[in-house]
Amino acid sequence: MSIFSDNFLWGGAVAANQCEGAWDADGKGISASDVCTGGSHTRSKRITRTLEPDTFYPSHEAIDFYHHYKEDIALFAEMGFKVFRFSIAWTRIFPTGMEETPNEEGLAFYDRVIDECRSHNIEPLITISHYEMPFALTEEYNGWSSRECVDLFVKYAVTLFKRYKGKVKYWLTFNEINAGTMPMGGFLSLGILNEGTTDFTNQIDNPQLRFQGLHHQFVASALAVKAGHEIDPDCKIGCMICHITTYPMTCNPDDILEAQKRNQILNQFCGDVQVRGEYPRFMDRYFKENGLVIKMEPGDLEIIKEGCVDYYTFSYYMSNCASADPELEKTSGNLMGGAKNPYLESSDWGWQIDPKGLRYTLIELYGRYQIPLMVVENGLGAYDKKEEDGSIQDDYRISYLKKHIEQMREAVADGVDLMGYTPWGCIDLVSASTGEMAKRYGFIYVEKYDDGTGDLTRKKKKSFDWYKKVIETNGEVLE
Question: Which residues are catalytic?
Fold first, then answer.
């Protein structure tokens, strides 16, 4: 018998802005991602307020899931997916975010995607907002720094809950909501664009706007949870955290305190608000020491308390180390890096590979929150090479995923209530942080390249059949 439950949700994950393309089709408006240029491992992508001629915007075509969704979902079904995590593009439903009436063509597209999933017995797991807020809201309000976005988001979420009632059981409100605690999250997550900002990675930062925007997202998420439960009492609505697991670099108490502080701000803060329904006390000192004053409307804290999520999901790619010594060698990571851990290997992009850190993280999270957990992003971004016969022998990806699933098994044996696993980029897509196609995650190779060329042909990698066997055996056969 498998250690995973019989109803364990095996699947994969993508995001609309990284895979759909069709950026201006059927009434869709311009999203924050649509004004981001291509980048590379060595060159950052840029944010342009207006679309520039002769400039490559990778989200505009991406891998054209919009026109290939039937083919792609059939491939997911062939692997045996029980669940498919994807996001809805806000601007397909409300092109500027400010319309009173939703765009029917956008709603109908997701009807087709959801129905296609269900025809293959795949549960949709939908992220309502995944790094693609309407760019018009950046221009009009400077994104989530303004309170106006709360009601606009709730209108959008309610539209989805009503439209897809009975067809979608699992929802997430905001992808990696804790990105708002980090400088890179200002535009990526919150749609906040400060004067002079053009570099996507190294933005001109305003922490006051970021944390105010994050508060607005907390309120919006809680209101959406309340509304979703009223509209469809059978649905489950979760949070999604970018978990930046952080260890102390040494047993020096200064390193231990530094790691604890980073874990509190980066990982625990948003989880505590969305699961426990209250701001943790440690944020009082953080706000005071950083000169931050969060403006709250009467009733905000009550709304947050009443809108707690049903389950906790998170992304896990790597771990970091924290040190009081600023001179230590640094490593890269998802949204932010840390001190380099000498005991770990790194990916092609410098992200340190730490499968046992996933077990540690699952145990820590379940001990803190005692609600079902789900790993909704995990994977290896790598350069995939085609062999002479056209095959992609991605044994490195198989090794990475195998080791992480092994540690998930250990965590379940330790008593963790783990409900599912959706590796990131189950089909190759555009990298959110760099705008590259070369950074590939998928079980399925897509003929699309960083210069925009490629005929979008889909091809199974070696990992495709491997993951199919993993699902068939409910995680027992990993060789």
Answer: 176, 377
